[in-house]
Write a structure and sequence with these properties.
TIM Barrel, Lyase, Ornithine Decarboxylase, Chain A, domain 1, about 375 residues, 2 domains, nine-stranded parallel sheet, about 30% helix, seven-stranded mixed sheet, alpha/beta
Length: about 375
């Protein structure tokens, strides 16, 4: 490895999670697996294959560039852009057989025109806003009539219609679900039939099985993040974040560490520097509450986390030395901080922590306990034997 700091992704755990979701929802529900944001930091290209081979039906992303990255590698996978694509770029959606979210009549007309030009029939899923108030047709009579006009267009395939829960409470969730299904039924009353209707993300798919309809959009649960609140599902954290101690020095009581000396040694101590910082995805605001694991023992972060390095107190770790492995995020079995615990300490959510990882941090992929691939985004063409 060209860096001691890296992300470890267990593909067996990923496969286990997909199969657990499939078993929970049944074969009649399409799993549209969310791999946006580089599969929540895990690596979309590498994760997509495992997801699809383990029971996934569709891949969902947020942006055109994410879809095109996948399409270059997987010409036959079904790919869905859940977010906005500008009018001038919709031609790439059509040319690359990508399913597009739309939320205006004008977008539908343009895709219909592009379908004629390229002799293709682009697939769309219509976004219907039931209260999230992000994008989507507003829940009203005018929208229903507009969508009825869209489904009549001959050169597009209105494959699906979808919405998104705000996840406020049970009553609001039920109201949104009823608003969505009522609108879909009214559109279909004219004789049209949507292939897919979906409103459930990771949380809703587990906590509200009655709302799953015939497609769900699992994201965080694919990667072992237990964000659901009511029910349980046997899933496993897929990612670990690791580094090694670069340097150890002795510090006298009262000496300051890092920027502004916000941390001062309360005793004579051993201070270790590790080559990881907020530019790698270890949040700067963790310096007062952050812990990492060395030789099975949790130790505190000492001082403000820098962009590329941070310091830890290893005074009480017996036999500690430079080169020792440091687990920044890991499993409870290793006495390591999990993403769930770290998100609480840092005052954020698990998804944000996952998405903080930058591409300068290499990924290592594990299968059957063996490292099967090393991915260095910054040097993709470097021969493997060189690192």
């Amino acid at each position: 490895m060209l860096r001691d700091t890296y992300i470890e992704v267990d593909l067996d755990r990923l496969a286990h999670n997909v199969k657990a979701i499939r078993e929970r929802v049944g074969n009649h529900v399409c799993i549209c697996a969310v791999v946006k944001a580089d599969a929540y930091g895990h690596g979309s290209i590498e994760c997509a294959k495992t997801i699809m081979e383990s029971g996934g039906d569709y891949l969902a992303v947020a942006a055109l560039t994410e879809a095109l990255e996948l399409r270059q590698v997987y010409p036959d996978y079904r790919i869905f852009i859940m977010g906005y694509t500008s009018d001038e770029n919709l031609k790439y959606v059509v040319k690359n057989d990508i399913t597009q979210c739309i939320f205006t009549y004008e977008q539908a007309l343009l895709l219909d025109k592009l379908g004629r030009e390229y002799n293709r029939k682009p697939k769309i899923h219509i976004k219907y806003d039931t209260g999230f108030n992000r994008i989507g047709f507003r829940d009203c009579e005018e929208s229903i009539e507009k969508i009825k006009e869209i489904v009549k267009l001959r050169n597009i395939e209105c494959e699906g219609i979808f919405s998104h829960f705000a996840l406020v409470n049970d009553d609001e969730n039920k109201r949104q679900f009823n608003a969505f299904t009522t609108a879909a039924e009214r559109i279909e009353s004219a004789g049209f039939k949507f292939g897919y209707k979906h409103i459930c993300d990771s949380i809703a798919a587990i906590d509200y099985p009655e709302f799953c309809l015939n497609m769900i959009r699992p994201g965080a649960i694919l990667y072992g993040m237990k964000s659901f609140r009511k029910n349980d599902l046997d899933i496993k954290q897929v990612m670990k974040f690791k580094t090694k101690i670069a340097y150890i020095k002795s510090l006298k009581k009262g000496e300051g560490v890092s920027y502004n000396h916000k941390y001062k040694a309360q005793r004579d101590m051993l201070l270790a520097t590790i080559p990881v910082g907020y530019a790698d995805g270890f949040p700067r605001n963790m310096f007062e509450v952050g812990e990492v694991t060395v030789r099975g023992m949790r130790v505190p972060v000492a001082g403000v986390i820098c962009m590329d390095q941070c310091m830890i107190d290893v005074t009480d770790v017996e036999g500690v030395g430079a080169g020792d492995e440091v687990i920044i995020y890991g499993d409870e079995e290793e006495n390591a901080v999990t993403f769930a615990e770290a998100s609480q300490k840092g005052g954020t959510n698990k998804n944000e922590l996952l998405c903080r990882f930058t591409r300068r941090t290499p990924r290592v992929y594990i299968r059957n306990g063996i490292r099967i691939k090393k991915l260095n985004y910054l040097l993709p063409d470097l021969p493997k034997e060189d690192y």
